[in-house]
Write a structure and sequence with these properties.
Length: 215
């Protein structure tokens, strides 16, 4: 049986790092990302809710085999095929987990920056395909799982990438002198940040965090 260690280990590893990592990101990109006062405090909010996020993610159901690194550079489309077959490579991070993790990872890393804010339509399409193929899973449950998965990926991105980067690194990405789909442009970074703040507020407004406090 596969073990899903990607999410759990990254959450634990980031538990003491996200506040420091976000503060470094704000320090390095405050002007470029147009950091607001509320955004400035995001690191503290993520750190205070990290255990809740981990608990929520570990209890997401149903589970299935996931890719774990589902981004555009790991996807090939056979244009010579009449049905345009799609192939995924690089399965070293595959394991048992929630399908929303792959969906969130793909949208955060691989869709156009202007599409990130309109990702609801993409996620809705994915959910419709699931239900059309006999998976009984409510839209509300799937969307919440997507929000939790998105937030976890954002934490990983901040700690592993943004916090160790400088403004000059963005120019290298633009020139394709550095590899990395986690940061394509300032616009991409801002859209990831905006979505994360929206999703955190959604979870705070729901009863989901309150439920974890009773565990």
């Amino acid at each position: 049986m596969f073990e899903l260690y990607l999410i759990c280990t990254s959450l634990k590893a980031n538990n003491n790092d996200i506040l420091k990592a976000w503060n470094l990101t704000v320090q390095n990109f405050h002007y470029e990302l147009q950091i607001s006062e509320s955004s400035n405090n995001l690191g503290f909010l993520l750190e205070s809710r990290l255990n809740d996020i981990m608990l929520l993610f570990n209890n997401l159901q149903p589970r299935t085999i996931i890719h774990g690194d589902y981004k555009i550079s790991n996807i090939f489309i056979d244009h010579n095929s009449t049905e345009r077959q799609i192939y995924a490579i690089d399965w070293q991070w595959c394991g048992i987990g929630h399908a929303a993790m792959d969906v969130a990872y793909f949208i955060a890393t691989s869709v156009h920056e202007n599409t990130i804010g309109d990702s609801l339509e993409i996620v809705r399409f994915y959910h419709n395909v699931l239900t059309d193929n006999g998976i009984s899973y409510s839209w509300e449950q799937f969307w919440q799982a997507y929000e939790i998965s998105w937030i976890e990926h954002f934490i990983y991105t901040v700690v592993a990438f943004w916090s160790v980067m400088q403004v000059e690194d963005i120019e290298l990405y633009k020139k394709e002198e550095k590899h990395g789909l986690h940061i394509c442009s300032y616009s991409h970074m801002k859209n990831l940040l905006t979505q994360t703040e929206i999703f955190i507020k959604n979870l705070e407004a729901s009863s989901v965090f309150h439920a974890t406090e009773h565990h």
